[in-house]
Task: inverse folding
């Protein structure tokens, strides 16, 4: 099975905090980093050093979506707090779904939250890429 990670974090979150959150989320559903084919987040995080470091470390491309794009995605756990700060009720779940070209039923991990020793929060959502959809995407 191949998956996409939807990532969110506080500004200035250490790569180690993000990495730990990812490993915990993957382990919770019996997956490894080898099954991750990419990551996604909100475009406001495209300069976030911790996110960029973790993606580079694993060789994952990261897709960046605008708040408007993320707002259009139906998610199981919309957040008024996230909406207040970034203009969309979901970052991780919505970004993972968009990047995987799936739906909310394809989420294997909806919203794994982790607070690191740096005092910063990271969230990880994991969306499965169906073999049929992935094959269709590659053929385009």
Result:
């Amino acid at each position: 099975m191949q998956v996409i990670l939807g990532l969110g974090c506080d500004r200035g979150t250490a790569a180690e905090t993000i990495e730990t959150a990812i490993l915990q989320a993957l382990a919770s559903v019996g997956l490894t980093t080898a099954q991750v084919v990419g990551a996604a987040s909100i475009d406001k995080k495209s300069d976030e050093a911790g996110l960029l470091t973790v993606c580079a470390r694993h060789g994952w491309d990261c897709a960046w979506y605008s708040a408007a794009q993320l707002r259009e995605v139906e998610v199981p756990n919309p957040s008024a707090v996230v909406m207040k700060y970034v203009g969309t009720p979901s970052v991780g779940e919505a970004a993972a779904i968009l990047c995987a070209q799936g739906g909310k039923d394809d989420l294997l991990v909806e919203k794994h939250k982790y607070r690191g020793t740096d005092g910063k929060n990271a969230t990880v959502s994991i969306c499965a890429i169906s073999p049929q959809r992935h094959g269709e995407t590659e053929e385009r």
Summary: Residues 136-140 have pLDDT under 50 and may be disordered. The helical segments are 15-28, 49-58, 67-71, 80-86, 92-100, 131-139. The CA atoms of residues 52 and 71 lie 23 Å apart.
